[in-house]
Amino acid sequence: MPPSDAANRNATRWAIRIVPIFIFGAFGFSAYAVVAHLCVNYLYRQKYQYGTAIALIVLYAVFYLLTLWSYLRTLIIANTDPAFVPYTERRETAEKERKAVKANRKAKGGDIESQESWLPADTDPDSPGLEAFYSKDVFICESDGRPRWCSLCWNWKPDRASHSSELERCVRKMDHLCPWVGGMISETNFNFFTHFTFYCTLFLSVCLGAAAYCLRLQQKEGRSLDGIIVAVLVLAGLFGFFAFGMTATSARYIFQNITNIDVLRQDQQQYLAIRVPLDSPSTPTYWTVTYPLTTSTRAPLGRNGEPPPPADGRANVPSESKPTPPSAAKRDAAARRTFALVKTELGENPFDLGPWRNFKSVMGNGPLEWLLPMWHSPCCNHDSIHSDYEFGPLIDELRKRYKLPATDENAEANGGS
């Protein structure tokens, strides 16, 4: 990695450590300025507006506590459970060795930040982690039928995972690295981040309203400008506008079931591996691949190592995978599955469940989850036997578009509908 990139990465890491300190300082300043200076000293003691002062203090306290609670929840999760994709055992060993070398070179004044451990896609048919994909009914893949590969983490990327260059790890449903909350916004804290921006908007609105009301009273009295009131107006107005914008953006992402990464990739098509009946042959419009892979499998490979299929989708049908050899484990023989490789159109989102279900997949299933930053999003649960994340109606549309043969499960579902 070039030195400039390493320097930028170090600067980012320092920023996510330092910025939260200023946020806590802002919380402290607002408590003094709004509660002590404006509500107690001015409205309550000087103007004798007891009802107004108490009402503002109550509103301030409610939104202050909710904002602080949401912020702490987001900050803590960002640093303790940032949705990292676990390393494989081999990568974990290499990382420990790299850290040991880093400590040694740092002591000698060397630059280890420019060192990267890059590894091409694993072509081993028994590559660790593949079974987590082909045991599902649908998964995101490359044009070769294999999952996406991270050459820096030496791992197969789960659906919706992306590699963070700042954190040097793959992150599930990564949205963005936010210095304001001291870490990564991902599937484990996006709902808490949304709580924070929403309550922060309301909290700053109370601060702005209190300061504006006191400023109007002081202008009627002919007083000179109060520096603290001006500071509250400027800070609350500026950060309130920013928080409102972030709340609106987060709401849009939630209802569309997308992230910042998805927005950046909206002009790209995605390959999906959709399960079809075992040993289904390839056709002129789609390829098929059977897992577990064997050394004799000739699948159309793409970004993972070999040429992708032609753009028109018509090519020679590759030879089918040979049956699992007798020496293979019985478990692998029983786990054989065939997948059709299909491609979405530009702008299609296979994870779009519809606005209401999208909302519940992130914010939860009940009012308490929607209002309080207590529980992780339902989308953090990856125990489904069908897919890592729930797919939307587009999967059925792709089955019809490519005329995929139905599995027994699909036939039963369609027959019962």
TrEMBL record:
Location of the protein in the cell: Membrane
Pfam families: DHHC
Name of the protein this chain belongs to: Palmitoyltransferase
BP term (GO), one: protein targeting to membrane
Span of domain Palmitoyltransferase DHHC: 146-265
One term of GO molecular function: protein-cysteine S-palmitoyltransferase activity
Family per similarity comment: Belongs to the DHHC palmitoyltransferase family. PFA5 subfamily.
Source organism of this protein record: Emericellopsis atlantica
A GO cellular-component term linked to this record: endoplasmic reticulum
